[in-house]
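ERR on first pass: missing label on line 2. Operator R.T. fixed the label and resubmitted. Corrected input:
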Amino acid sequence: MPEKLLYLTELVGLVVYDLKGRRIGRIRDAALVPLIDPARIDRFLIGGGWSWLVFRHDQVRSISLKGIHLKDEKLIPYHADEYMLRLVRDLMDKQIIDAQGRKVVRVTDVTFAIHENGSGSQLRVLEVDVGLRSIVRRIFQGAVPRSWIRKIQNPIPVNSIRWELTNILEPDPQRRLRLNISHALLEKMHPADLADIVEELSPDNREAIFEAIDEEVAADTLSEVEPDIQASILESLETDRAADILEEMAPDEAADALGELEEDTSAGILAEMESEPKTEVRELLEFKEDTAGGLMNTEYVALHSKATIADAFEALRGNEELHDSLNSLFLVDEDGKLTAAVPLARLFSGTVQTPLAELAVELLIQVDVTAKQDKVTELFDKYNLLSLPVVDEEGVMEGVITADDVITVLREK
Amino acid sequence: MRVARFFRRFKHRIGIFVAVLGPGLITAIVDNDAGGIYTYSQAGAKYGYLPLWTLAPITLLLIVTQEMCSRMGAVTGKGLSDLIREEYGVRTTFVMMAALVATNLTNVMANFAGVATSLELFHVSRYISVPLAALAVWLLIVKNSYARVEKVLLFSCSLYVCYIIAGFLVNPDWKEAAVYSVRPVLMLDPGYLGLLIGMVGTSVAPWMQFYLQAAIVEKGVTVKEYAESRVEVIVGCIVMSVIAFFIIVACAGAIWDVKPRDITDATDAALGLKPFGEYAYLLFCAGLLNASLFAACILPLSTAYTVCEGLGFESGQSLDFKQAPIFYWLFTLLIAAGAGVTLLPGFPLVKMILFSQVINGVLLPFVLIYMILLVNKPRVMKTHINSRWYNFVAWTSVVVIIGMTLALVGITIRDL
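pass 2 clean. output:
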């Protein structure tokens, strides 16, 4: 049996009748109390005369397009309540996130299912409507009888998002708690998708998301956001929150993000960071943005030049967090000077005793920290590199540039 | 030491200024599209230097309205159609968007007609020039990101220098021009009053407000950079009126000085410049072509963005036809229809343009009033609402613009 549906556009303006069938007033708004039930309409607001009145979900006997009939006559005056999400005021025409479609949408209407139980009816929020069909409903709302509107909209395809898959945006942290808004759906998204969403939002809502989501997710997402938006997000956050997020980012990306800020702000955030990531980021900040030093990161694995495959395995086990992005190991002598690069896949072609030096690439390509970024991209192109070690003027290894850094540079051009 | 610091600070500011450059300048300059050039040419040809004084108040009106829009963009990070939708609902937005599409469509027509007539002076048939121009505009929008399109538009802005050179070549009476720029002249001549109303009434158009605010948001201008952005908006408005000044002066020197007369369109004005040398004439034509192409490019794009944003359809040049069908179809249709009608023999283009002025005049008061209401809402603007003094200026400006626009509607309806 198909569920009986009702739209918010239809609910608003619906006449409410008391026990004896007398008209009390018309529905003005409906509210959820998400802390109790995230989808059930808990309160109905009716406007009559000067003040608004409220009745609760368990006072409803029946709901249909013809009106709402109540079981009793207990109506109380409406008082603004921080725990209520009022659909017309707080949801209609506002932006929300469609977690499944991974985009920002604007609410045009809300679809309810009418649930009948023995003694009465309940409304549960089923879907949030976007698109043409709901726009038609809004345009004709109140001007044309409800049953006609249903006929007019019928040929237009439905464009709705299930209520559970949406994420409401609320800039005020207090209210976010009271309305029980979680960002669990956002935290499950791919950071690159979340970054695209964040870029579309207004500054308030960006800040709200970065305040609330998990630090690691925030860091991964921030790395994917456009530089100028990165800067405005970091500026809007509390300094310690910004520092916490930056600590979770790769040092080169944290340095790039800080480089976009004004000096006072970035110094303030740096001061709040923990000492280990701070020194790395600070060193990276010294380099000019458009040089090899500015592009490189300091997350790499370097072993002494006499190390064997066994030593390599040992070192890798200690650096699990690098595994996803690593594609070469580097060998350095006692002074820290770079002597060789070993592609990771070559480790499979030897035994555990094989010295790494035997597996090294024949031609060691390296670049000076002060080299211009054009030089870097040229080297990547010419030698088909995945990663490129960066050394100082004495040949001491400073960091590594990976292909994804180069792709970012090329995309920006 | 202090000098060095000042210099560094100054360089920093200039850097920000360059970074925010675009929205204000482009919006103000597109105001001088084919229709605008015709109005100013007419002013110069028929009344010489007398109407020059209106440029200063027009600049002020433009600055006041543009400043509020760009401030809303910087503070809220949302477009004007977004804000109207959030605060006033779907129905209001829908009606405004429908009116906006209608007036912008006729505007696009007028500008493709400008392309046609300006190239006909170079002996290019409109059956070649208009389809090519339409295709070029369409490809520019479809194949490029907005950031790139904006660069092309900024370059196009610089080509307006044509009019300044043309103005010098005509060698008008500079002393008269200077005097009448500051001396208001009112005559109870219906033609003259109609012209003044036309100049002021067409100076602020609804689409400009939507475009400017969206472009500011797109640039990512924040409250912190807003000071530079405001300078950019003001510079844009001044540049616009400088160009208008030279158009009026060129026509005054070339046509009015010889014999005051009515001109039929902007190309007629260009022909009037011919006795003053081939260059003046060519520059005037090239300027018209540039302006028409410029507007024919920006109007469909801005309309599509505004409508899709306000009604919540997918939009953006980074998406494709499938992902954002309404966005792409809307601007494709605007270009196709706008270019198409200029090729129809016997199409009542002048009537359409007059009709569009009527819709424009009906829509504009709503846009401006919603704008002022929005910019004064603390919920939307937080601490950046208008001050009391500024509100006085803003309301006065809006009332003047609305009054002039409605007067123009009255005149237009009488002529229709």
